[in-house]
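Kindly review these C-alpha cells for lecture notes.

. . .
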Amino acid sequence: MKTVAAIALSLAVALVATMPAQAAAPAGTEKVKLSGKKGPSLFRPGFQLGEYDGNATVKSSKSSVTGIFEGGKASVEMTVNGPGLGPVEVACGGGQSRLGLGWITFDRDKLQFFCTLSGPGAGSDSTFALASAKGGGLLKNLQQPQRAAELRFGGLSIRARTEQVGGMPIGGGATIGYVFSRDGVDVGGVDLAAMQPTAYLPPKGSKDRDAVAVLSLILIFFKDPGRQR
C-alpha cells in the first residue's frame, strides 16, 4: 500500500504535469534583463534595466517555528532614473497605504507591502500596494503564492497579478512572476524565476513604459517571504 507521502508526491507530480511548460509574455512587449553595476556603496549597489538605472538597498528578515508559524519582513529603498524620468525615490515596507485594493475579488492574507514614490515623473499621488491572497484555484496555488498589487504612477494605474511569464512553472514556494494590466489590457510583466530577473516592458514611446519599469523593479527587489502559514 502506498504511504501518504507517496500518494501526495504522485498527486503533486500529476498536477505539475498539467501546468504549461512556459507562458507567453504579453504581446508587443520588449524582454529586458536586469543587470548589476557599481552603486554609491557596497550596501547600495547599482542596477540597469534597459534604459533605466539606479541603486537600491534591500533588507529582509525571516523567522519561523516549523509547523507553527512562518513570517518575514522586507524593506526596499531605491532610486530610479530614465530618459525624462527621475530621479524617482521609492521607499517600501509594511504599514498603511492610501491605495484601496477593492478590485481584489478574493480574501486577503497577512502579507501587506507598500511603497511611496516621489520625484519628476512620478506624480503627486504615486503609491504602490501589494497583498497576498487566498484563492485562484488549486493549480495556481500549487504553482506559486497568490499576490495582487497596484501601482499609481505618472497619472496611470497599473495592476499586477501573479502569473507565470516565461521561465519554469514551479517556484518552490516563491513567487515566480507577475503580469501587469491597465484598464483590463495586459501591458507588461516580470519573470522572477529566470537566472537574471527579466521585465517585459511596453514598446519605447508607450505611455505605460515608465510605470511598468518602476513596477517591475519594485517586484524584483521585494524579498517576498513566500507561502504564508
